[in-house]
Amino acid sequence: MKEKRFGIDIDGTVTCPASLVPFINESFSLNITLEDIKKYDLAEALNIAPDKMRDWFDQTEPAIYAASPLAEGADKILAKWQKTFHLLFISARRQHLFDITEQWFHDQKIHYDHIELIGSHDKVAAAKRHAVDIFFEDKHDNAVMLAEELQIPVVLFNTPYNQDAVPDHVIRVDNWHEADLWVQQWLLQQGRISPLLRT
């Protein structure tokens, strides 16, 4: 019986945060790495006109999503979790990108119980509607909002663009292995023996 419900962002969380860097370099004749992106807003981070960046992203978004590599370890941890937890992927992607998103999950052999593309960074309503127990995110503002409004733990995957201070309910991790260890500790603190620890 699956008890806990995990809300999981896709881009920069399940996918590698550097997924769009090659596309940026090619399109804007740059030679940057992920470490150069210190702000979530790409226009601000790269000093590119917002309209120009928005048009570029609208055109390039499907190709980026189709080609995005997995974040290291995500497949192994999600495969482990899917036996025990509900995996609900909640993304700011827009609905017209659902087929590309679903195909990517199929290609990567990532199990999901639900995929929801809400077209907005405000994930509070979706997380509340699905009664999410923990959320996994890479966007600082999302993590803080989810943690404060829903009073749930939010696991924030460290990136150069999300280094602002966070409240107590936001837990920083560097990778999926650390996220898994935190989940096991969280379950133990609740007085439950994680099924993951019985194997």
TrEMBL record:
Gene3D superfamilies: HAD superfamily/HAD-like
InterPro entries registered for this protein in UniProt: 5_3-deoxyribonucleotidase-like, HAD-like_sf, HAD_sf, Nucleotidase_putative
Superkingdom of origin organism: Bacteria
Broad EC category: hydrolase
Enzyme Commission code(s) on record: 3.1.3.-
The UniProt record lists the keyword Nuclease: no
Keywords recorded for this protein, A-Z: Hydrolase
One of the record's GO molecular function terms: hydrolase activity
Family under the similarity heading: Belongs to the 5'(3')-deoxyribonucleotidase family.
Protein name (Swiss-Prot/TrEMBL): Nucleotidase
Species the sequence originates in: Domibacillus iocasae
